[in-house]
Amino acid sequence: MTGEAGALLVVEDLSIEFRTREGIVRALERASFTVGQAETVGVVGESGSGKTITAHAVMGVLHPAGRVTGGSVRFRGADLLALGEEERRGYCGREMAIAFQNARAALNPIRPVGRQIEDVLLRHTDLGRSAARDRALELFARVQIPDPPRLHGAYPFELSGGMCQRVMIALAVAGSPALLIADEPATGLDVATQCAVLELIEELAHENRMAMLLISHDLGLVGERADRVVVMHAGHVVEIAPSAELFAAPRHPYTARLLATTPHPDSRLADLRPIPGSVPDLREALPPCRYRYRCERAAPECDEPPLPRVEITPGHFVACRRPL
Amino acid sequence: MLRMIGRRLAAALPGVIGVIVVTFLLNRALPGDPAAYFAGPAATPRAIEEIRVKLGLDKSLPEQFGLYVRDLVRGDLGTSLTTGQPVVADLRARLPASLELTLCGLLLAIAVGVPLGIFAATRPGSWADHIARVLMTMGNSMPVFFSALLLVYVFYYLLGWAPAPLGRLDAFTPPPGSVTGSFLVDSLLMRDGTVFLAAAKQLVLPTATLGLAALAPIARITRAAMLGVLASDYVRTARAGGLAPRTVLYVYALRNALLPVVTALGIVFAFLLGVNVVVEKIYAWPGIGSYALEAVMTSDYAPVQGFVLTMAMIYVALNLLIDILYGVIDPRVRIET
Hints:
The complex is a heterodimer of chains A (about 325) and B (about 325).
Chain A: E1 7-20, E2 23-36, E3 40-44, H1 51-59, E4 66-75, E5 78-79, H2 85-91, E6 96-99, H3 103-106, H4 113-124, H5 129-142, H6 148-151, H7 161-173, E7 179-183, H8 191-207, E8 211-216, H9 219-225, E9 228-233, E10 236-242, H10 243-248, H11 253-260, E11 310-313, E12 316-318
Chain B: H1 2-29, H2 34-39, H3 45-55, H4 61-73, H5 87-122, H6 127-141, H7 144-158, H8 183-189, H9 193-230, H10 233-240, H11 245-282, H12 288-297, H13 301-329, H14 331-336
Helix pairs in contact in B: 1-13, 5-6, 5-9, 5-11, 5-13, 6-9, 7-9, 7-11, 8-9, 9-11, 10-11, 11-12, 11-13, 12-13
């Protein structure tokens, strides 16, 4: 499902398993997508669809219980999964960076936020201590943190959720990465702050010609900002398409239902329809298509492996035997 | 900061009062009649009665308590019937020996236990993890009187590496001039290498005994705290930022893991103060623990009361120190207080 030429990040057939007490969870199965230079790609899906662990695997910070069982992650052509620990670390923060969800917990609670930014700067730039401090203050100003000199010495618990998110973003862009992964950057913030934070990320990406992987469960929020959208369900990539095309003509039944759950200005409450069923239990034996038992278009042929991946129109991929 | 210290001291006051009352009552409840004990086996009932009056033991309990508190306020802990000295003087002479020993034991336990805990947490399942587990089990399951005797047997009797367990210095070394009361520090201040070495030699076995006992809880709590912190979101952030492994481990993980470790240190120190009584007895250490033990055996109230009160004061001071350390480590504590 890729247009590989010139792509910055190529994730191909990535599979991840988690060992748990109750058995092995196949959290991600043969996921493939690409992110081009300076391109914004949205990743959308319900909770448990595998968005966040994909991001963690790309960054190399997968939870110890998780294991990559197949596939590759290539950045500028280099296979990150094959690199040694030390080489791999060279990419983190400098070439690619991530703004984690729940920013407050993702910041060191007992280190001043300014110092945390400086840690990254000292690691990835040639700046000295005082220059790093100046740069940290600049970054704070850039992410619209009021009174940078004062908040430089503040601790996360002294800051609001929105401010923590801004610090998180400043931390991620401190090393001037070519790719920024933003994992649910707006979740848990009030609506006004959500908009401001998303706008800020967009601006930063634009200014620095930074590619972005924007992860969210909110299709509407992603659709407005992404060039292309990757739709995930239960550890599968089910559809990839340019945003406008995806919204106008979704081809995977799941995407269509997901769109129907997304409110827009002229829809009424009665128009919003929930998706039947819930994300399947990934510990059990599953049919080739994991949406099979929630899908109103399911047919006997859907039980035949493998899960197809069809380029239905140029640049529009669908993993479905009976697309819309 | 000063306000916080003042508040903590005030909060400790009820505890101290409680200790005063309880030690007083407990000592009166001890079996044995001190008057009879000091009159000797050949004494007539009249002689015993006279001694009883002299000791003030003929008065009612509330009266005795009133006198006791009055003396306390004056800084008078009474007189030891065994040594014939004021208890305050005895304690002052013996406390440095106990503190020196306890602190050495604690330092040893920290110096070994904390790195061991870190190592075990960063490499679960490795040889360091296994060694840590063995040491923890040993430290937990071996009673101190046993490990003390074992160490003496092996290192003094069998191998002859350690000096005789007969106090703080061997018979041929004069004690250094007293500045702090710690022989190690005092001999250094006097620039007397011979005395320093002699004092250090005597300290090795009792310190190892205490260290072994304190090692297990410190290593275990360090390991658990590090495991928790290493799995935290902010350590993941530090890793994703490409920070050097040493920075991640020490600046991000360890400092956060120190909070429970410091709490554990307080508990361990208090535990060591108790263990000290046994260790001092076995190594003939002239500290307050062995002093109190002898006093208990002779129903000598005053030293026991003095000992328990001293322990309570040390405990209060210790908790204060830990609170202050908390504030140094964690800014969240600083703001709240």
